[in-house]
Design goal:
This is Related to alpha-L-rhamnosidase A. Keywords: Signal. By secondary structure, this protein is of the alpha+beta class. About 30% of the residues lie in helices and about 25% in strands.
Length: about 675
């Protein structure tokens, strides 16, 4: 009898746990994500992601947004118009359930916002910038009793921090809220939202939080494939029921909206995804949908994926091609490359076919870019992107085992383009690239940042001069982008910080990160957990709203992956660890110190863990790393005393002559070092 009772209890426990596991991931998706972090440590305290896929608000605010109390699980609404604001403390997204009792008839309204600015009975805007308001959802009750309301799947709210509950009634009805919980909708294949496959930690707590805010943003941007924004846009309210692509999970541009695949955004989002959460499956599905909807005749890729399926951008066409390189570099998924190689070749023929002579520049005929509603002729930013497309395409040709010489052909095209861009688009009187090959006085942030980062600029002195010129756009809260006046774009500033870092201007990059991303992270009106799409130079959240046909202020996304540049930059340049061959078969370790004292971090690839750390010690430093055996890398050791060859030891022994140490740009370069765990001391 005792054994039977125990067996029954164990059966109940098993069924409960099995049910919990079954519900751990979103709806009918497969729990295929990692179950635990790859790098456990104290830095996990900086992860914004909740420990459960079901969360409740952290606190209760007044309708004015002032703190009232912590949320203990209950609250009361009494009388028509009464309301409370429930603060989750971080950006969240998914389906809310409220359990309540009432003594009369009426409605409970639910309204959502990412920013404190739009707390109230009308949600912030997610549906469309040219259509009606999002409004609220309502739970109706006709008599006294117990009720439970769960938002319909199609009404999933992709991104919000604040939930306003308000009472609509003709009488003296009282509603007692018994429970509020949210089923997290993002990162749908992960049972453990904190199972990061990368990490970063330094002695600067603000930089650490900025790195993790980018990582968490990317999590909120990995969404179930059936929850895209409804197209055509509604005249009132919102629906997130659009099919975005294949698989169970896909990376989109923003948590709240547009909730669509935008390959331009992926130029920043994918490298940051790789070094942090490591979710390359969402990346693969996003790229595949671009190939699935490629124009079979012309070879043009969509500007955005379905259901929006916007067409006609030359730059976003090229970002799909660059995204293909990034994905294969990080994943070594050559099967994906082979499957889509014929389409890639068609895409290259399409875009390179727009290069005209005698100039040798790309003649842009597509419409739109990240900031420009109209593009055309020989814009300098598209030239930079084409150069990067050709260089990365040359590597892809090798990885695809092409035997027709495309690697050499495309590198030759890139070299010719580089010469043409420097001849026709550079303004020697100003010391930076013009917006196009005409006599314009506009010197854009995007083209100039990319010219350095993508190595299009033709001299070291010219690159340093452009870096200095970019400082002219800086304000205390970020860099104004001249091509979108009055606006600060963390997207393009993500390229700028990497540009400064790529030529050793470490202090400038860290300064801009703290000005821009630090300002938003510490802004009490924001999410304080994610990175924003953009904002105005006066410090308001009205990004792009300086022009009458652009965004209404509450339409701005406060969780936008295209702004996550510091996450990859801090790992690849400050820690200095990056992969240069597929899945890290070859790698590079080149730390930059700036004003920091200690940094460590790492990421996972199919080959295993890549991890490094450095710490300043007196007049020198200690650099340690642990990478998979069988890999090969270059280690670049900065010289703290300019012009002096430092004393260097590896694992307690002098540097072997076989590594051929030599000083290049005030750093000692050790080439082709093998994998394993090693410690280098520089004095």
């Amino acid at each position: 009898m005792v054994c039977q009772s125990l067996l029954a209890q164990l059966t109940i426990i098993f069924l409960f746990l099995n049910g919990a596991i079954a519900q751990a991931c979103w709806k009918n998706t497969t729990c295929s994500g990692p179950t635990d972090t790859a790098f456990p440590g104290t830095w996990e305290s900086n992860i914004f992601a909740p420990s459960s896929r079901t969360v409740s608000p952290a606190s209760i605010l007044s309708k004015e947004g002032n703190f009232i109390s912590s949320f203990k699980g209950t609250a009361q609404l009494a009388g028509n118009g009464s309301q409370y604001v429930f603060d989750f403390g971080i950006e969240v997204g998914g389906l809310v359930t409220i359990d309540y009792t009432t003594n009369g008839a009426g409605q409970i309204g639910l309204a959502f916002t990412e920013s404190k600015n739009w707390i109230g009975e009308w949600s912030d805007a997610s549906n469309g910038k040219f259509v009606g308001p999002d409004g609220a959802l309502y739970s109706n009750f006709t008599t006294s009793g117990k009720y439970s309301y769960t938002m319909p799947d199609s009404k999933l709210r992709g991104g919000f921090r604040y939930l306003t509950l308000f009472l609509v009634t003709n009488g003296t009805t009282t509603v007692n809220i018994k429970d509020i919980n949210l089923a997290i909708g993002f990162q749908p294949t992960w049972s453990n939202l904190r199972a990061y496959q990368g990490y970063f930690h330094s002695n600067d707590d603000e930089l650490n939080k900025i790195w993790y805010s980018g990582a968490y943003t990317l999590q909120t941007n990995a969404v179930p494939v059936g929850t895209g924004r409804h197209i055509p846009m509604l005249s009132y309210g919102w629906l997130n029921d659009g099919v975005l692509g294949p698989g169970d999970t896909i990376i989109v541009d923003g948590a709240k909206r547009d909730r669509a695949v935008w390959p331009g955004d992926m130029g920043i989002a994918v490298p940051s995804t790789f070094v942090s959460i490591g979710d390359l499956q969402s990346v693969k599905n996003a790229l595949q949908v671009m190939y699935n909807y490629q124009n079979p005749t012309t070879g043009a890729f969509p500007e955005a994926g379905p259901p929006l399926l916007q067409l006609g951008s030359d730059t976003y066409h090229m970002w799909t091609m660059i995204g293909t390189y990034n994905y294969v570099l990080y994943s070594n998924d050559t099967a994906f490359l082979q499957e889509n190689w014929a389409k890639y070749l068609l895409a290259m023929n399409f875009i390179y076919g727009k290069v005209t002579y005698p100039s040798g520049l790309l003649n842009v005929t597509g419409l739109r870019d990240w900031a420009r509603w109209q593009t055309g002729y020989n814009g300098s930013e598209p030239q930079m992107i084409l150069y990067r497309t050709l260089v990365t395409g040359a590597d892809l040709a090798i990885w695809a085992e092409d035997t027709t010489g495309l690697n050499a052909t495309w590198l030759g095209h890139a070299a010719a383009l580089k010469t043409a861009v420097n001849e026709y688009c550079f303004d020697p009187a100003y010391g930076a690239f013009k917006d196009n090959a005409t006599a314009t006085t506009l010197h854009p942030q995007d083209a100039n940042s990319m010219s350095i980062l993508f190595d299009v600029v033709n001299s070291t002195a010219r690159a340093q001069g452009i870096s200095t010129r970019l400082l002219d756009n800086w304000t205390p809260i970020g860099a104004v982008t001249p091509e979108l006046p009055g606006n600060i774009s963390p997207f393009i500033s993500s390229f700028e910080i990497q540009a400064h870092l790529s030529i050793g201007q470490t202090a400038r990059a860290l300064d801009l990160i703290r000005r821009c991303w630090g300002w938003y992270l510490n802004n009490p009106l924001g999410t304080q957990s994610t990175v924003i799409e953009g904002y105005l130079t006066n410090g308001t959240f009205g990004y792009r709203s300086t022009r009458g046909y652009d965004y209404t202020p509450s339409y701005i996304s406060h969780s936008h992956g295209w702004s996550s540049g510091p996450t990859s930059a801090l790992t690849s340049f400050i820690l200095g660890l990056s992969v240069t061959g597929r899945a890290g078969s070859t790698w590079k370790l080149a730390p930059q110190f700036g004003d920091l004292k200690t940094v460590e971090g790492g990421f996972m690839t199919g080959l295993g863990k890549f991890q490094a750390s450095w710490a300043l010690q007196g007049r020198g430093y200690k650099l340690s790393y642990n990478v998979p055996e069988g890999t090969v890398g270059d280690v670049v050791l900065p010289c703290l005393d300019a012009g002096r060859f430092p004393s260097i030891s590896i694992d307690g022994r002098p540097v072997p002559k076989s590594l051929n140490p030599q000083i290049v740009n005030n750093a000692v370069v050790l080439s082709a070092i093998g994998g394993g765990s090693h410690s280098i001391v520089v004095q």
